[in-house]
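Can anyone check this?
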Amino acid sequence: MASLVSRLSLPEALGLSLSVISPTVTAAFNITLVVQATGPAAPLTFAIGMVAMGLIALSFMAFSRRVAHAGSAYAYIAQTFGNRIGFAAGWTMLLTYVGFATGFAALVGSFACAVLQTAGIATGPLWVVIGCASMLIAWWLTYRDMRVAGRLMLILEVAAIVGITVLCFDILRQVHPSSEEVLSTWKPSTEFGGWTGLGFGMVFSFLCFAGFEGAACLGEETQHPRRNIPIALFGTLIFSGLFFAFVAYCEVVGFGPRGIHDLAKASTPLNDLALRYASPRLAIALDLAAAVSCFSGVIGGLAAAGRILFALGRAGLSPALGEVHPVHRQPCAAVSVAAIMIIVPFVLWAPFSGASGFYSATSTIGVLALILIYIGVGVAEAVETWSRRPVWAMLCLCGPILLLWVLYRNLYPIPEYPNNLWPYVALVWLASSALIIRSRPAVGARSAVTAG
């Protein structure tokens, strides 16, 4: 059986993690969610969230220094708790990346149509066609050469981030907040519940960092993986955290103290700020930047899903999924099946729920599944190191404890319909792994950590 080739470098690994996080989506959407809970203290919330998510990253970084595997958390958890539990973790992680990729495709279509509408072109349901096209192009790129796909992801993300940064500096040049207004962005707001509100906002800030671990799926294809993968994970997390805090600060001061409630309700805060402080051209450019960033997210989600499916196939799910293409040296069969898995729900569901509704649903399902994986990896690292490094093990356990609270806040108070259904979707998907293990005994017998 042919094996994957280690020909990727650090930039390609960074590109995958950045594309799955998609910082532009947080700047365009998720910051308003944090502001709803914390008001002007959104930058502080992201700064604390970065440190808290760092506790989760510690476990991933520690495992990635010991295990280089396409299955990422699948192999980490299997090494500690056995192949059956590991398979359940890998199957759950597959849901995360499928959900992210198909949701990003909807946003590609939505942002692209926003650009066309600004130019006076009627779009109608064209966003569905554009979303489908983005998935097909992503399929082609990830099928043929991950090096090209990885570099393209990094370039697209950097271009989108540069566009947002230009707007932020335009805001800072024109707005001169008082020292009191500046300090209000770095301390809990009594109007928004103080530390209680900030704690609730932490739920949303955690969700913004989801996906930083994406580069771990390239463990078998990256040169010097035990060095480059931890760097990619840590670098993505730190950069994203600083970027989120900076953009949140600029959005808060841009709307001003009297406009903080407007920011909390804004559906397109970057466009609103571009029209106020820059020009309609920059607003169009930001919509285009968001579209290309989301396309990068489609590529990243598909690439990660394909590698998880490849690892599961190699471990007994299906020999065909565990094959490496003799020419492209890619897990092409697994990538193709993963592409079908992201296209089918998009075609059957997205046209009826709308782009934002579809993205909200699929990303929520993906995040709920990912929280379970983060908890599993943190507990696994604590178990692995408890006898040798108890202080380190206790530090790694802090991450799962925090995430249990985040998970609770996503389940209670019970969300309104249809959001109350998404936890059950994730649980049913997790439960289906038990049926697969029963029907495919090799899944529980074959080693998850040893490649091939």
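Reply from J.R.: I decoded it. The radius of gyration is 21 Å.
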